[in-house]
Automatic annotation (TrEMBL):
Keyword Cell division: no
Binding site for ATP: K60
One Pfam family here: Pkinase
Domain Protein kinase: 34-318
Gene3D superfamilies noted in UniProt: Phosphorylase Kinase, domain 1 (3.30.200.20), Transferase(Phosphotransferase) domain 1 (1.10.510.10)
The keyword Nucleus appears for this protein: no
Any GO MF annotation of the entry: protein kinase activity
Keywords linked to the UniProt accession: ATP-binding, Nucleotide-binding
Organism classification: Eukaryota, Metazoa, Chordata, Cephalochordata, Leptocardii
Protein name: Protein kinase domain-containing protein
Length: 318
């Protein structure tokens, strides 16, 4: 899914569902109406818009994806709904049918800073090991949650990993969601998750072809190396959960010194206040990305930057 730069919000289409075969009844009623707004993103399987619930149900705003009825994937609908609302997975509220189109009503992640955007801001330098381990813990927690329902994501890449307040990960875009039956079915997500970690700590392309020798050349930490080498080993439905726990343990033990650079202690209170104030004036997603870019350039830690990241209706979505 490709996310777009800020555009003025234009409410342009009212959805009056004539069918809601896939729905969380406690969140939406079959008679509810929604009005679509600005374009949030666009991928091979449809466009995602900001959406406002005219009935003012549980959440005033959410995101909605429009896809063609002939491309409707009931496995995606059933499986995504079963995933529920998780700390690390974008939740699905309802799937409705209207005028030959399928509307996927999902959790709104606001603001959205993708892993791709963050790494591009950092280039040509890689992310700090400590930050990469924190993000990898969230990525594998998301994969573990998905695998616990015997399904696989199949499309994990930097644009489908969103970073929220306090560097919390949210995985999005379940268009390619498929059942996972055998142990081999879980391998692609695990491999992609470890590719994402290498993407963060080396600044090499996400699609870079890694070998065991190249991994050993670039990953020197003796706690992290065994985790990354699992991309060349057989996996089970528990592998992602195990890797999440091991990455979390590395984070606690201070892997931030693995690259030979000791991370400074917490920034001064004055500096933290400056970071918070810059986000307090942000009114659009462009403002948020500009603030993130500026504070990274000034040497502020991602911990401090994302601790100050605003949430909710204060930020205008594209």
């Amino acid at each position: 899914m490709q996310f777009l730069r800020s555009q003025p919000v234009i409410l342009k289409k009212i959805i009056r569902p004539d069918g809601s075969h896939y729905r969380r009844g406690e969140r939406y009623s079959s008679s509810a109406e929604w009005v679509t707004g600005g374009l949030l993103g666009e991928g091979a399987y449809g466009k995602v818009h900001l959406c406002e619930d005219l009935a003012n149900a549980i959440k005033k705003q959410h995101a909605v994806k429009e896809t063609k009825l002939r491309e409707f994937n009931p496995v995606e609908a059933d499986s995504w709904l079963r995933l529920g609302f998780s700390r690390h997975v974008c939740g699905l509220n309802a799937v409705t049918l209207q005028d030959g189109a399928v509307w996927w009503h999902m959790e709104l992640i606001n603001p959205r800073v993708s892993l791709k955007q963050l790494v591009e801001i950092h280039q040509p330098k890689p992310l700090h090991w400590r930050d990469a381990v924190t993000i990898a813990t969230g990525i594998f927690s998301a994969i573990a949650h998905i695998h616990s329902y015997s399904v696989k994501h199949c499309d994990l890449h930097p644009g489908n990993v969103m970073l929220c307040k306090d560097l919390r990960v949210k995985v999005i875009d379940f268009s390619l969601l498929q059942p996972a039956v055998t142990n081999d079915d879980f391998s692609l997500d695990v491999q992609n998750g470890l590719q994402l970690f290498l993407y963060m700590v080396t600044a090499k392309s996400f699609r870079f072809s890694w070998t065991e020798a190249l991994v050993q050349e670039h990953v020197k930490d003796d706690k992290v190396l065994p985790l990354v080498l699992k991309m060349f080993q057989p996996v089970t439905n528990q592998t992602a959960a195990d890797i999440a726990k091991e990455f979390s343990a590395c984070r606690v033990k201070g892997v931030d010194e693995a690259d030979g650079i000791r991370k400074d202690d917490a920034a001064s209170v004055d500096r933290q206040d400056i970071v918070r104030e810059s986000f307090a004036t942000a009114v659009s997603e462009d403002d948020v990305l500009t603030a993130v870019h500026n504070h990274i350039s000034q040497g502020d830690s991602l911990d401090d930057i994302f601790a100050a990241l605003p949430e909710g209706d204060n930020i205008i979505c594209d």
